[in-house]
Design brief:
globular
Length: about 250
């Protein structure tokens, strides 16, 4: 699903050069749920931005779902990002003046789906996160946990192969955080690959695999999935994908 090999990211100013990632190697297979941990400043956010095609890398290789990202222009990267990826952030980033239906609809309009297809995807996505009955409600009428579920529905509506989550429970209390984590686990069981950055060791422990980043590098023994887990994840993804085809 995702493989980075000897990846590097260097930020340069006229006076200093900062290496955010160096010799960075990681492999995430289809169907995995991987938690990414590490201290502040370790390179987690840079890694997630590069994985999400939001930021370019300085050297090395990045292959996403069989496509080599290296050398892509902005239009090609944007197209690949829209087709393959979904994003969940710590902030819900909902538009307060739009109801749930219209919030989930925003990215679908950019994808060019017709109205009937958008309606089908929106209703299905909000149903998956348990908010079908709130479809015409506004963000201010929801709890924090419910707002994050809307953000997850918005990400799912595009049917991403890889879901990138940056501290998805960071603004929630412990009870709401557990609810969101349970939802992410359900989504993963249905075949979506998930890459989640978190500072919460309890949440990280619930992922299938932990990847720890220190000083811009992946800790040893965490670069590759275990063979048995990879087979289980790939099989689950294939079964779920086939079952969900129209």
């Amino acid at each position: 699903m995702l493989r980075m090999t000897n990846l590097s990211k260097v930020y340069r100013t006229h006076m200093i050069e900062t290496h955010a990632l160096r010799g960075f190697d990681i492999h995430v297979r289809p169907g995995e749920f991987v938690a990414v941990t590490g201290p502040s400043g370790s390179g987690k956010t840079t890694f997630l931005n590069i994985a999400g095609l939001l930021e370019e890398f300085s050297g090395g290789d990045y292959v996403l779902d069989g496509v080599n990202v290296k050398g892509m222009d902005d239009n090609a990267r944007s197209k690949l990002r829209n087709e393959k990826l979904g994003f969940i952030f710590q902030g819900f980033n909902l538009i307060p003046d739009l109801n749930l239906f219209d919030n989930v609809d925003v990215p679908l309009r950019y994808r060019g789906f017709n109205a009937a297809e958008r309606k089908r995807r929106i209703e299905q996505a909000l149903g998956r996160v348990g908010l079908s009955s709130r479809i015409r409600h506004y963000p201010a009428e929801l709890s924090g946990g419910q707002q994050q579920r809307v953000a997850i529905a918005r990400a799912l509506a595009g049917a991403p192969k890889l879901l990138l989550a940056d501290e998805p429970t960071g603004n929630l209390d412990s009870q709401m955080a557990r609810g969101v984590m349970e939802l992410l686990e359900e989504i993963n069981e249905q075949g979506t690959t998930i890459l989640m950055v978190t500072h919460d060791p309890e949440l990280a422990a619930r992922a299938q695999r932990n990847v720890h980043i220190i000083d811009g590098q992946v800790s040893d023994l965490m670069r590759e999935p275990t063979t048995s887990l990879a087979h289980v994840g790939a099989a689950s993804a294939a079964i779920a994908y086939a079952a969900n085809q129209p």
